[in-house]
Design goal:
The structure holds 2 protein chains of 2 kinds.
Chain A lengths: L2 H12 L5 H11 L9 H13 L6 H49 L11 H51 L1
Helix pairs in contact in A: 1-2, 2-3
Chain B lengths: L2 H8 L3 H12 L2 H17 L10 H20 L20 H19 L3 H12 L4 H8 L3 H25 L2
Helix pairs in contact in B: 2-3, 2-4, 3-4, 4-7, 6-8
The chains are: A mainly alpha, B mainly alpha.
């Protein structure tokens, strides 16, 4: 690149009309060899920019943060791992219970099952069963009536006896 | 954001953050402290930062804010620390560099350090770090016009210094 082109670019640079690529061209040129005497002072500016860019922190700086943040990250994720483990355990337990129940059901015949194929026959049988229950209820009701009468008689007798015993106490 | 993302998107920006903080504060120790604070801030708020596209620009913005907070609290002068010792890669300079180039570079450093704060920030981000205008707007929370005007003024202030040196050898 000849000095005329560089001067043109420099003019654009001072007017803030250069792109990042053009500024990089200037930086490369002025950090290279064979710079004309007239541009030596301007070269110092671009050399200064380049030199400033090399200022850096040593590697021990980010190593300290790596160790610190990596540990805290592990500590933060540990409870989540534990929760996941517990959840997995519970899931396995529930699945096992479900399958065992299925197997048990298969091996024992169900107590309630379809026993009648004819609906009329089933209705008759149901009526018969209900009548039997109804009769039993009636019998029990008669028995309960007798007990009720007995209880009433007992309370009446107790009611008569009470004043006499009270007199005796006086 | 997990640790791997932090390691790939945030940690590599450490030198840019350090240089920017140093540009604003003028103290390498304080600049280091600021970078540490930035990392801690980003790590602690990592759950909210997953949607940020340009993490580097975001970190640069936090660096700027933390550095300015420090500046406000102690009203530090950046020009005081030009001769501060660095733990940097360019410390070992040849005798030639320390005499010829070192002198010009120190002068340029003084000129840039003496620029108004906004101009100093913009010239650093553009000419040293090579950020685009949009990224600079994002980092400094300024509009495009303000960024371009600040850069124009900063570059022309440096250019005038060069002209004075060439004319009068100041």
């Amino acid at each position: 690149m000849d000095s005329n082109q560089i001067n043109e670019l420099l003019e654009k640079y001072w007017n803030c009309e250069t792109s990042l690529e053009e500024e990089q061209t200037l930086r490369s040129y002025f950090n290279g060899q064979d710079i004309p005497e007239s541009l030596k002072s301007t070269a110092a500016l671009f050399q200064y920019f380049e030199r400033e860019k090399t200022k850096s922190l040593d590697t021990s700086f980010d190593e300290k943060f790596r160790n610190r943040f990596r540990d805290s990250h592990k500590m933060r994720t540990l409870p989540l791992v534990k929760i996941m483990r517990i959840a997995a355990g519970v899931l396995v337990g529930v699945a096992a219970i479900f399958f065992i129940r299925q197997e048990v059901r298969k091996s024992y015949p169900p107590e309630i099952a379809e026993t009648y194929s004819d609906p009329k026959l089933a209705l008759e049988e149901t009526k018969r069963a209900l009548m039997m229950i109804s009769n039993s209820f009636n019998k029990a009701e008669q028995g309960a009536e007798q007990i009720k009468r007995f209880n009433e008689a007992e309370t009446k007798i107790q009611g008569k006896d009470q004043p006499e015993s009270a007199k005796k106490e006086l | 954001m997990n640790f791997e993302l932090f390691e790939t998107r945030v940690l590599p920006a450490k030198n840019k953050l350090f240089r920017f903080a140093f540009r604003l504060l003028g103290s390498s120790e304080e600049a280091k402290d600021v970078v540490q604070e930035v990392f801690i801030k980003v790590w602690n708020g990592r759950d909210q930062m997953s949607e940020i596209e340009n993490m580097e620009a975001w970190c640069m913005r936090i660096t700027k804010n933390l550095s300015l907070d420090r500046l406000r609290s102690r009203k530090h002068r950046t020009t005081e620390s030009l001769d501060e010792s660095f733990n940097t890669q360019h410390d070992a300079m040849t005798p030639y560099e320390t005499t010829e180039m070192g002198e010009s570079i120190n002068k340029i450093n003084q000129w840039i350090s003496a620029l108004p704060e906004k101009q100093r920030q913009v010239i650093h981000l553009r000419d040293i770090e090579g950020y685009s205008y949009n990224e600079i707007c994002d980092i400094l929370e300024l509009d495009m016009n303000q960024v371009k005007i600040s850069l124009f003024r900063a570059r022309n202030a440096v250019k005038e210094k060069f002209l004075k040196v060439n004319a009068y050898g100041l």
